[in-house]
Write a structure and sequence with these properties.
By secondary structure, the protein is mainly α. It has 7 helices and no strands.
């Protein structure tokens, strides 16, 4: 059984839909928190793109708030920054 086949259709759909689509403020806070963490670690957007495989164009859309982050993107970004997705999300709660 392939890894793709092991993922239920509903779980796959969740991963493919933008996280926080209906919460632009939360998405903006997440972007701000990621930028802050990148600054703290001395990482650049170009390095983030290369390490995560997320194009510069897509990252720019996420960081400007044009589009919300996908769960998979947050997983990749957090893995690169060595932080947990849960911690990232908790940092953005009001």
């Amino acid at each position: 059984m392939s890894a793709t086949a092991a993922v239920s259709p509903s779980h796959r759909a969740m991963r493919e839909e933008p996280m926080l689509e209906h919460a632009p403020r939360r998405s903006a806070r997440i972007a701000e928190e990621i930028r802050g963490e990148m600054g703290y670690q001395g990482r650049t957007l170009k390095e983030l793109s290369a390490a995560t495989g997320i194009s510069m164009a897509i990252l720019r859309r996420r960081f400007t708030g044009e589009k919300s982050f996908y769960v998979e993107e947050l997983e990749r970004i957090c893995r690169y920054l060595n932080i947990s997705v849960i911690d990232l999300i908790e940092r953005t709660e009001l």
